[in-house]
């Protein structure tokens, strides 16, 4: 009982720290109403701002009131003849001009070894981010974010970790003519049970380049520092293509390629996915007539 109370107390402290981080960024910015621009609001149809398929998170949120759904499938080759299949989903909401809320879930996990397969639901994540600086000619767009993982998957059969994780994020993004660059600096507190956490840092760089017509290319590299004895530092990458069917529908596909090896390092993985801006839950309040 004492162990559970200690773990719950530590999780509450991490949650409070994440909320304070976002409130601090908001407090240092302009008043919420003065932060808005016409481009933040839907004028005709909602526009998808796909988070898939990269490790990096863009600092610019989706439009105000827009709900976006993203779904993806991955197939990973693990050690020996083992493999893993994962179906993941993400729901995003543009809360206000600079604020975005995300809920993601590992909807289905299947771990296969010769003669044995374990499958079921995985873990869930809740994240929020606040853009405290818009892109200018000199500086990139910048946002701070916080995410917490809820252990909903069964850890006994390898469908989840069984512990709560926390993540603090600093996101930056800038356009260079036709290319868009996004960089993240992330700090992870990975739960190990009994109120204990291991810690690591992550640095990412993602480049998105339009190729021809509706086709685009994605190239990304990221470095994760040492976590513990079972999880060494590693370097990974993402190589993919995107196809924009229209403003609200984007398809993606490619491979996550390992650039280093060691205990806990991700393996090569194939992925496909889709992002769709479903619609607008609420719209911009009508502007008042200056004469009124």
What can you see in these coordinates?
- Strand 7 (165-176) and strand 8 form a beta hairpin.
- The mean pLDDT is 87.
- Strands 1-2-3-5-6-7-8-9-10-11-12-13 form a twelve-stranded antiparallel β-barrel.
- It has 292 residues and is mainly beta.
- It has one helix at residues 2-27; strands at 66-77, 83-96, 99-113, 116-120, 124-133, 141-150, 165-176, 179-191, 197-212, 215-224, 234-246, 249-258, 269-280.
- It is 9% helix and 52% strand.
- The protein has a single domain (2-33, 40-280), classed as monomeric porin ompg (Porin, Beta Barrel).
- It has one helix and 13 strands.
Short note summarizing the structure:
With 292 residues, this protein is mainly β.
